[in-house]
């Protein structure tokens, strides 16, 4: 199956952002908090994106901020999928009171808006990177639980799962060798969406002042730092906003292509 143009564009920008985040220490012209000029200098050869509100190189801030944003979002996504998918599969396989307890607990957590829950927790806890990752991962795990449980419920009634049970296979084997491989298609697509949500979530928290704390940089924080410049026609706040939007769209395009490719391959084998 040939990769469509939209997926190729999405893959290019996704690889570009991830590559810049991984190699930030080598490609960033200046340090994360290094002041190199005056406030809001225009674009130039020395500062391709200009400077920010206190004279830091905006290109360097974008690279370092991308590293922080992508790292926090990726870590939270891994945590949410590890926890949510395992608990969702467990609820589907076990059934009974375990399924009811986990499902009702998730329903209770989902009844509270995620942003409000995060703001309440972060207002009484130290805002550190591990705390942000855990809070975001736990809140997002509820969505993954609902999807993984729904998918696993359909798979558990299949003949090959019943055959594994009749062979005396343990539930851990059934979850990881029978259910998980057949649930990967929707989970991979959902992982892309959850990563996008995590990027938007951490950027929102930073913009509100309860996300990544100075002197660390992230894209939401850069928008907050430079938002006053919009009044004077200075685009410093729009650059990280554009990066957030393009990363979200790019990951979504790649996730859609992976889902369509996996579905078509399964259909071809069938």
What does this structure look like?
Helix content is 73%, strand content 0%. It has a single domain (5-269), classed as MetI-like fold, CATH 1.10.3720. The chain is mainly α. The protein is built from eleven helices and no strands. The protein has helices at 5-22, 24-27, 58-94, 96-110, 114-124, 129-155, 159-166, 171-182, 184-208, 219-226, 238-269. The mean pLDDT is 87.
Tags for this model:
11 helices; MetI-like fold
Count of helical regions: 11
Task: Characterize the overall form.
Answer: elongated
The unreliable regions are none
Computed over alpha carbons, the radius of gyration is: 22 Å
Provide the β-strand percentage band: under 5%
**What is the percent of helical residues?**
over 70%
N/C terminus separation: 16 Å
SSE series? HHHHHHHHHHH
CATH fold-level topology: MetI-like fold
- CATH homologous superfamily grouping: MetI-like
- What structural category do the secondary elements indicate? mainly alpha
The first-level CATH class name: Mainly Alpha
Main pleated-sheet profile: none
For the record, the count of structural domains works out to 1
Tally the beta strands: 0
The second-level CATH architecture is Orthogonal Bundle
Average pLDDT taken over every residue: 87
